[in-house]
Amino acid sequence: MASSAAQFGICSAGAAQTVPETKAMKILDPRDDLARPFFAYGLLKPGEPAFALVKPFAARQESAEVRGTLRLRDGIPLLDPDTSGRVTGWLLWFDPARISMAWSVVCSFEPPAQYKWSVTQAHSGEQEITANVLVGKKLHTGTAPETVQLWSARHDPVFHEGLAEVRRLVAEAAPDGVGSQPDTPELWQMFFRLQSAYLLLWSIVERLTAFRFGPGLDPWPRIVRLSQDATFREAVVAGGAKPDVVIDARDPETRYRLAADGTGAAKYFYQVRSNLSHRGKSAFKDAQLIYKSVTELEAAMRILLDRELLP
């Protein structure tokens, strides 16, 4: 007997309890038959940044193929089922005792502006299995002309060439670090080049948070999630980040602390990004803060990506 969405009371109510940050977001409605497996071909499949969100609910998983091809919009795959290709992914069967929460996570993660539900016939070995799948919306609008049959976040150039470029920019701007020095045009040239590297680094961080916590979430809720993520804190510590406090440039009574165990790191580094630069007799201290932040966060991101994404 098919299980209905009403029977399990999802997805809107369940998602609000499971993922508080998505409360104001539009979320996907679920399929009617929740007992079917979920065919994952993107960020929610095993080996990808967001699989950790559904892994606790997956009672069984196996690789499979479905008819179609993948179109990329902003580097994220959208299934086009009306082609003759074969897309490789994973079938996920959710634990019946936790099925409501599992589908809430899926519905909350993928943005309804990009996806809609469909049913597909997946092939795993000699078996043909009916599965729920998310297909892309407006597949010929804003998508790359090239299509792929297999997708992974580890191939995203932002995480490879982008991170390497951050390190190169820092090495060129301040090969010997930033020492005490007078307020000169050369100092500000160094500062703005370091700032450029830091902003590029943050585009990398924000892309990873979108991949891990949901592309439909706004940036700040993703930063909050990152601050709560144990793997990120561990990478910050492993990268050698030193404890520190940064003051909000808009309100000197607001402080963000980076602790020795990595607690507070995401908000600390984000506040450095948010603070406005200013001229002053201690201008080199601003350059030192940017240098400290860009080198420490780059090291943390390299460790995190090496552990979770890069081959």
Strand content: 15-25%
Strand order of the largest sheet: 2-5-1-7-6
Spans where pLDDT lies below 50 across 5 or more residues: 1-24
* Overall geometry: elongated
* Helical/strand content category: alpha+beta
Question: How big is the Rg?
Answer: 22 Å
Q: Please, what is the average pLDDT?
A: 88
Largest sheet, strands/sense/barrel: 5 strands, mixed
Work out the helicity level. 40-55%
**Tally of individual helices:** 10
Through-space gap between termini: 43 Å
Q: How many individual domains?
A: 2
Number of strands: 10
Order of helices and strands: HHEHEEEEHEEEHHHHEEHH
What distinguishing features does this structure have?
5-stranded mixed beta sheet, 3-stranded antiparallel beta sheet, 22% strand, 311 residues, elongated, alpha+beta, disordered N terminus
What does this structure look like?
This protein is of the alpha+beta class. It folds into 2 domains: 144 residues, Hypothetical upf0131 protein ytfp, CATH 3.10.490; 156 residues, no CATH class. 41% of the residues lie in helices and 22% in strands. It is built from 10 helices and 10 strands. Strands 2-5-1-7-6 form a 5-stranded mixed beta sheet. Strand 6 and strand 7 form a beta hairpin. Helix 5 packs antiparallel against helix 6, helix 7 packs antiparallel against helix 9 and helix 8 packs across helix 10.
